[in-house]
Write a structure and sequence with these properties.
Helices cover about 10% and strands about 30% of the residues. By secondary structure, it is mainly beta. The longest helix is centred in the middle third of the chain and has 5 residues, at about 115.
Length: about 220
């Protein structure tokens, strides 16, 4: 072993790290570590007015959802040695002998790279070290409007004139340690509530999908 490598716990105390016969009666060192289904999804719609100003905020999120990382955008060269895109925050999370006790450096040494994640290696096997909470809160829509006083609009034969600014997906807060280069809503979207048995620990979601785009708009509402 080298500095930064993972060491698995011999849960059943038999002197080896394995999954036994892979049955409920003999599961070796396998133990439940998370739940891939979204836990406590929520949403809200808040509207407020003050004089001629109106404000609407629509939000949604998931309080907790466990995800075992997958894909090159998360793992970079740990996923494939020829990966061309490496997110900026990864190098500060790789174990370094200059910072041996930094809890934020969760990845093995850079030199380990693909050898650490390939099938059957230490980082490939499910573990709670890399298990990530992808819970989030996202402001899906925020609209601010102003209604021109009738004393002015009547002069141009308009009953009501309202101007507004609106933004979609403008703020997102992650509850876990998910990198900002991954969209928590996109990553967690592989789960089907109608078919929870289809959920796998290592999802096939393409983590290189585009994140939810931010949209800004402005407009007029006119009632004649």
């Amino acid at each position: 072993m080298r500095g930064g490598d993972l060491r698995y716990v011999d849960v059943d105390g038999d002197g080896s790290i394995d999954n036994g016969n892979n049955t409920l009666e003999d599961h070796g060192d396998l133990v439940p570590i998370g739940n891939a289904l979204p836990q406590f999804p929520f949403g809200f719609n808040i509207s407020a007015t003050w004089k001629n100003i109106d404000l609407t905020v629509i939000g949604q999120g998931v309080a907790k959802q466990d995800w075992y990382p997958n894909g090159p955008l998360y793992w970079a060269t740990f996923h494939r040695p020829y990966t061309s895109f490496i997110r900026k925050d990864l190098l500060n999370q790789v174990w370094d002998p200059a910072h041996p006790n930094d809890p934020n450096r969760i990845f093995p040494q850079r030199q380990r790279a693909y050898n650490a994640l390939s099938n059957g290696r230490m980082s490939y096997n499910y573990n709670d070290h890399f298990l990530t909470n992808i819970g989030y809160l996202r402001i899906k829509n925020l609209t601010l409007g102003y209604t021109i006083p009738p004393t002015f609009t009547k002069k141009i034969n308009v009953k009501r004139l309202r101007v507004f600014l609106s933004g979609e997906n403008i703020f997102t807060w992650s509850f876990g340690g998910l990198t900002k280069y991954l969209d928590p809503e996109e990553v967690g979207a592989h789960v089907s509530y109608s078919n929870p048995n289809s959920v796998s620990g290592r999802s096939a979601t393409d983590t290189q999908l585009y994140p939810m785009g931010k949209t800004f708009s402005a407009g007029l509402q006119i009632n004649l």
